[in-house]
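Appendix B, record 7
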Amino acid sequence: MENILDVIIIGGGPAGLSAGLYAARAKMTTLILEKEKAGGQIVSTAEVANYPGSMENATGPILIDRMLEQCKEFGATFEKDTITEIDVNGPIKVLKGEKATYQAKSIIIASGANPRPIGAPGERELIGKGVSYCATCDGDFFTDLEVFVIGGGDSAVEEAIFLTKFARKVTIVHRRDELRAAKSIQEKAFKNPKINFIWDSTVEEIKGDGIVESVVFRNLKTNEITEYMADEEDGTFGIFVFVGYIPATNIFKGIINMDETGYIITDDNMKTNVPGVFAAGDCRVKSLRQVITAAADGAIAAIQAEKYIENELA
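Structure tokens (predicted):
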């Protein structure tokens, strides 16, 4: 069994690394656990232009590398492991991983959420090469190009409206014959001259050699197959997928309070229903999932973990 740490952070994305930085600077013994490489969703972002103070041409990987370096400079440690079992009932929290078992006085869950894919052939291979799950992150790359938005809920329609700031034409593709978004959002979309609609359709395949070049749609009512090819002068177009997110919180079900979709419920101080357990970033219930809000969550969670140890475990 490992020594008892002050805090273990589950997840090495912006929320986890921000928590790690603040915890380590507060002289807490800090371990960041990540099942893969650090970074989360941002490592697939070619440019981070909406993070305050980011340098010109800063990429997701560059920003994450610097965050990780800062954590280590202040004494945080980083391990790759997948947590398979947790016990957070007592004052000492126990996490069992595939490689080792860990103990800590507090836990910060920063496990993130993953965009729900549509599951079409070619989708995975062309992520970051025309396929995107974040209009705020990547909309600017499609200035004066055409884009397709897959989905019909609030997020899809709101992001379609946002994308009209960049793209010359935005087409919403929805599997039903009417949108699921709030009526007020729908009205804005219908009034926008740049927005078009393809109803009752799904994406069958996304094609391209290193970049999106065409997309195949299937009409669910007629089974008609239609392939849209990129404009010859453009050479490509964007496909933005907004069919929901999947929070990486399965292991905490039945232990940590969540909403009906699996997002962890916290208060403004990132506290969960379990004393000594905090949550930060995309895995928790919140209105905006961006690097800047994840970093803020992580900082708050670390400070609250420090206060919990000082005041509750003293």
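Remarks on this record: Residues 124-241 form a domain with the FAD/NAD(P)-binding domain fold (CATH 3.50.50.60). The longest helix spans residues 291-312.
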